[in-house]
Amino acid sequence: MKDLLNDLKQDLPAGLVVFLVALPLCLGIALASGAPLFSGVIAGIVGGIVVALASGSPVSVSGPAAGLTVIVLNSIQQLGSYELFLLAVVMAGIMQVVLGYLKAGIIGHYFPSSVIKGMLAAIGLILVFKQIPHALGYDKDSEGDFVFVQVDGENTFSEILNALNFLQPGAIIIATLSLLILIAWDKPFFKRYTFFKFVPGALVVVALGVGLNEFFKVAFPVLALENDHLVKLPVARSVNEFIGQFTLPDFSGFSNYNVYIIAFTIAIVASLESLLSVEAADKLDPYKRNTPTNRELKAQGLGNIISGLIGGLPLTAVIVRSSANINSGAKTKKSAIIHGLFLLISVVGFASLLNKIPLACLAAVLLMVGYKLAKLSLFKSMYALGWEQFVPFVVTIVAILFSDLLKGIGIGMAVSIFFILRNNYKRAYYFMKEKRSEGETITIQLVEDVTFINKGVITLTLDKLPFNSNVIIDGSKSHNIDLDVLEIIHNFRETAVLRGIKLELKGIPAFKGVAGH
């Protein structure tokens, strides 16, 4: 019981902050996806409660994902029915559960650290760039639209310039004061006081935003924010109206071939994004805990099955909410569950009150999350590791900024693999010269694992060996020598005689493909 209370001291405030971050994102992603607004909230609730309970991640938070908006939008249009799309979501969840049992989660361990850190920095920068217009009072583009080319026709950078033509002084005042409060809240001086430890700055910012805007309405109507500048949570006037917001899948779609294609697409993309997000969350986790990836796939699959059955969007583990959770001091998965419960309570009884929250104060919260993900110190530490780490890191950032998450990760992975291949190409062996009684001897000591990637450099090295020299090719420390490399070595043994080279092979297996051996 004591441990539970100790955890709640950290998890309750963190869950509240994540709720405040998640609420506009759930609505914005639903809007950008061309789905009912309530579908985003359903996915947020299921991700917060169901997935968190089933997942093995202590800090990851799941919900509707910006990376799926284009897929969802196109899928709904292609199927011509949201109910058919929900069937695809349910089937995608079943596929994810199967992938979990097939242990496909192992893929999550093969993303290079430089690419994961590049993804975190890119998302941080995207949050900053995307929230600047909202902080200035220009809310034409919905929250949750994280791709470069936006739904409103602008791109990430042109939107900022465009926002300068539609400045809202009231929003700027609220956003500026909110940022100042959030910055002060993190200072060690304030952390010495109990109030600042246990009351999240985001809650104070939201209360300030609502209070200021209500004051503007009375005293300075020209500064007051209305309509598009506020949260827009669907309000149910009765129990029947609330229940009517849930939608059931159209199970007659089992005979529709396109439903299976869309389900498979969602399953693969959602699984990859989830694995990327939990890997990134594990890196941010101050306790350095590791998420069981196969269990995560099963949890995400269960979440998508339930979300699809009751009318929700497909969901994934989401790094924006996860990083907000970690930065707010979350210790266990209770914070994610608390955020899901807050979402549920908000739509049941407090929708009208929450619709008074200005997007400008929530923009300030997300600006702080973005800043912490893309701190200058991260760039300095990656640069200090050398070009082999820094280049994939930067390429990942740029690619994500100008495309989307998965395309950017793919490009970053390609660059990272290039450096891995380049290093393997160079590091196939150790080259040593030493004086012996019979003259100078060259020893080529092969490394532990020699693959076909090393064919080129080994061939060039053997071709450049001087005539009439003494050469030892030593594979005694190698656990694996690829057949392609063995062929090159044994072919060289035959040509070495013609060049007057005295060759000794140590620990080199026979190669049957060469005549006479």
Automatic annotation (TrEMBL):
The chain crosses the membrane at residues 12-31, 37-54, 84-102, 114-132, 166-185, 194-212, 257-281, 302-324, 336-369, 408-425. Its main location: membrane. It is a multi-pass membrane protein. It is found in: Membrane. GO terms for biological process: transmembrane transport. Residues 8-386 form the SLC26A/SulP transporter domain. Keywords: Membrane, Transmembrane, Transmembrane helix. The keyword Transmembrane helix applies. GO terms for cellular component: membrane. It comes from the Bacteria. Pfam families: Sulfate_transp (PF00916). The keyword Chaperone does not apply. Coiled coil: none annotated. This is SulP family inorganic anion transporter. It comes from Runella rosea.
